[in-house]
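Query structure, 397 tokens:
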């Protein structure tokens, strides 16, 4: 039997891509050096001209590129299977730069209801300053998308899975409908990672990550990422060079190192989340569990067809309202009470208290954030330990 393989598996790419081939070889170190510089020098004017005309491979100024960052971009580009990748200072920087670059003044976008708060705020408060209108639909409501596309739409933007209810969009259907109308499809795939979901292969034109989460994976660095076609990424890169939200070279190194273990970490947090979701679903103190890997999740069939793992986050509602959920969280001993997800340490939060405290109860109800909701982001600890901890905390409600 032939063992030749056309393309390495994601776990192999996660370790090697972007670092062995193509990187400038300043030493024989296995690790990619941190090129801590803000600018690059040229030997003479001819070298500047050669650089400008593509005969001399180098960099010019830190806002337009860095060798360490380039290696990290190359690794993620390969993992997502895209033509080009751009890293930036945070996930929000990727969101804002992308929308400003690709949505024209007076344009229209379609987005989905369950969404990271800051992205929602940017769309609701900043885009209207450019005359951009937004239609918000339920993530799985294909009929609503078809209605929205009756008018010209510049861009469709959704998380998948969404934050915090872990809804899925039917990506191939969304992409087919949008592409028939010339609408760009962008999927924030932060919660899935390229290990669990290949969003470009499912039809997205661009994928977005808060690299702060699983890609970096150690709760120690902020980063954002976009991967897509050369053509779209050139437009985003141009504005990125103007807005200036570049990733620091040291942060790029941490991201590069984090990505080497991405496949292992994601696999473990998938397993932890599945075990916790099943445990919670059978517990009388739990009213509802939202995890795409459970048959009870409304988008389970879509998740099964699009994802190879269901992610490390479990959202659930407890009996006992706001106070019950707070008591549960306070009784947990392993996860930190903290926003974010995707690191080796498990984190837990009550969205009403952590992110939505300054929203009115009416506004929270409108966007569907329930007081008893808990978001548990699994790290890579042992699942039996996490479950034993959850069990004792549930007894304290
Ligand atoms: C789905 C999603 N997208 C984007 C962001 C923003 O990323 P960052 O915090 O890296 O700016 C977050 C942050 O929590 C998120 O959950």
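Result returned for the query:
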């Amino acid at each position: 039997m032939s063992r030749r393989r056309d393309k390495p598996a994601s776990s192999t790419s996660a370790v090697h891509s972007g670092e062995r081939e193509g990187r400038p070889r300043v030493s024989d170190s296995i690790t990619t050096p941190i090129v801590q510089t803000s600018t690059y020098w040229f030997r003479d004017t001819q070298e500047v001209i050669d650089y400008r005309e593509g005969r001399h491979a180098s960099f010019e100024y830190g806002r337009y590129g860095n060798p360490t960052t380039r290696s990290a971009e190359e690794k993620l580009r390969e993992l997502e299977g895209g033509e080009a990748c751009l890293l930036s200072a945070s996930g929000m920087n990727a969101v804002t730069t992308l929308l400003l670059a690709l949505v024209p003044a007076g344009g229209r976008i379609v987005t989905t209801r369950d969404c990271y708060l800051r992205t929602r705020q940017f769309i609701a408060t900043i885009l209207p300053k450019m005359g951009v209108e937004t239609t918000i639909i339920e993530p799985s409501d294909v009929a609503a998308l078809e209605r929205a596309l009756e008018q010209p739409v510049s861009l469709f933007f959704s998380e998948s899975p969404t934050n915090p209810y872990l809804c899925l969009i039917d990506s191939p259907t969304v992409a087919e409908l949008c592409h028939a109308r010339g609408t760009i499809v962008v999927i924030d795939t932060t919660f899935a990672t390229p290990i669990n979901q290949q969003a470009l292969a499912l039809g997205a034109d661009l994928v977005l990550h808060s690299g702060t989460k699983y890609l970096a994976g150690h709760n120690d660095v902020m980063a954002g990422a976009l991967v897509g076609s050369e053509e779209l990424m050139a437009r985003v890169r141009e504005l990125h060079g103007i807005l200036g939200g570049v990733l620091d070279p040291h942060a790029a190194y941490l991201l590069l190192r984090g990505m080497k273990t991405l496949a292992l970490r994601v696999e473990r947090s998938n397993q932890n989340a599945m075990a916790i979701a099943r445990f919670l679903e059978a517990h009388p103190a739990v009213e509802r569990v939202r995890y795409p890997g459970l048959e009870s999740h409304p988008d389970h069939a879509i998740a099964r067809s699009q994802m190879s793992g269901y992610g490390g986050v479990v959202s659930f509602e407890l009996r006992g309202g706001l106070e019950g959920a707070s008591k549960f969280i306070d009784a947990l001993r392993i996860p930190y009470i903290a926003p974010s997800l995707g690191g080796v340490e498990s984190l837990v939060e009550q969205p009403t208290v952590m992110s939505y405290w300054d929203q009115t109860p009416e506004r929270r109800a409108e966007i569907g954030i329930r007081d008893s909701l808990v978001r548990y982001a699994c790290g890579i600890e042992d699942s039996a330990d996490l479950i034993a901890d959850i069990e004792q905390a549930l007894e304290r409600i």
